[in-house]
Amino acid sequence: MSEFPRRLYKYRSVPAATDVDGRHRLEALLLDNALWLADPDSFNDPFDGKSAYDLTLRGPALRQGLERLARRHGMTSAKARKWVNSAVVANPRWLEAQLTRNMEVMRHQLGVCALSQEPRNPLLWAHYANDQRGLCVQLDLRADIDALVAHPVEYQDEFPILRDLDRDPDDQRAMLPFLRKSTDWAYEKEWRIVAPDYPNTARFFAPSALSAVILGMRMTDDDKAYIHGLMDQRQARFGQRPRMFQAVAASRAYRVRIQKY
Fold first, then answer.
1. For residues 8 and 191, what is the distance between their CA atoms, to the nearest angstrom?
2. pLDDT attached to residue 29
3. Closest to 15 measured CA to CA, from 223, 230, 233, 231
4. Dihedral sign, CA of 12, 16, 22, 24?
5. DSSP string spanning 174-209?
6. Contacts of 196 by beta carbon, 8 Å cutoff, 6+ apart
7. Among 4, 21, 68, 133, which one is least packed by beta carbons within 10 Å?
8. How far apart are CA 102 and CA 53, in angstroms?
9. How far apart are CA 217 and CA 143, in angstroms?
10. Closest CA to 145 of 205, 191, 213, 198
C-alpha cells in the first residue's frame, strides 16, 4: 500500500484560443475548482478497468453465494432462490461470463479522475501536457480530504481475477479493476478518484486545495499570459493565488526541474 501523499498533480494542455470548449474545460479547473470524473472508456489505455471472474465455488456453496449476492441487490429470499436455478449453478463458466459482462456495464457507471504523485517525469509532461507546452496543477489533499480522497493504482502484469461473490459492494475491492494497470504504466505513479454513479461529471474542491501551478518548459508567452490572467481572476474571486513555478530541463540529466517562476 502506498503512503498517502500530501500532494497530487493534474497535467493539462492549454487549448488554442480558438478552442472555446477546450479553454472552458481548463478554466473549470483553474477558476471553478472542478475536477472532471471521466468514463474510463475515454482513457488512453484500452485495458483500463478490465477484469474477469474465476469462481471456485461449486454446487450448494455456489448456490448459497449467488443467493446472498441476489439479496444484496434487493431481491427477496424467495426471488433469490428462484433466480438461482439449477441450470445456473450447474454452469459456472456461463456464470463467470455473465459476471464479467456485468463488470463491463459497471465501467460506464463510474467517474474516474487520474492524478499523479510525480510532477517531474518527462513522459507525463509529454503525454498529458502537450509535449511540455501545457501545465501541471498541484493539489494539496489536506485542504479538502473529502473531495480529494484518492486511491493508489497498483501495477501488475495481469488484470484482476475476481473470485469472491460475498465481497461488500462498498469495499475498496469492488473498485480494484479501476485501481490496477499494467506494469508498463508504473512510471505514472497514479492515484485515482473513483466515484460510483458519477461518470462524466465534475467534482468541486475547496479553493485552497489548488496550491500551485507549474508551467511547461515549452509553454508559449501568449499561453503564459493567459494563465496569469486566470490567476488574476482567481485571486479576485477567492482572495487566494496559487504559487507559480516553471518547469526547466535539468543540466546533466534527462529530468525536469521545478523552479520558482
1. 8
2. 98
3. 223
4. positive
5. GGGGGSEEEGGGGGG-EEEEEEET-TTEEEE--GGG
6. 109, 110
7. 21
8. 11
9. 28
10. 205
Which residues, other chains included, contact 91 with Cβ-Cβ below 8 Å and sequence gap of 6+?
none
Counting every residue, how long is the chain?
261
User: For the chain, how long is the longest CA-to-CA vector?
Assistant: 71
Q: Residue 131 phi/psi, 5° resolution?
A: 55, 45
Per DSSP, helices labelled H in 179-261 are 221-238
Element (H, E) at 210: strand 210-215
* Cβ–Cβ under 8 Å, residues 115 and 139: yes
Check pLDDT > 90 for residue 41: no
pLDDT tens-digit readout, 87-129: 777 788 888 887 778 777 777 788 999 999 999 999 999 999 9
Per-residue pLDDT of 119-148, as tens digits, reads 999 999 999 999 999 999 999 999 999 999
Place of cell 517562476: 261
* Chain centroid to CA 68: 30
Q: In angstroms, rounded to a whole number, what is the distance separating the alpha carbons of residues 199 and 197? A: 6
Helix (H, G, I), strand (E, B) or coil at 40: helix
Estimate the crossing angle of helix 221-238 against helix 20-30, to 10 degrees: 50
Cell numbers standing for residue 248? 526547466
Which amino acid, one-letter code, is at 233?
A: Q
Whether pTM > 0.90 for this model: the answer is no
Question: Closest by alpha carbon to 7, among 144, 121, 131, 124?
Answer: 144
Instruction: Please answer whether residues 26 and 34 qualify as being in contact, where contact means their C-beta atoms are separated by less than 8 angstroms.
Output: no
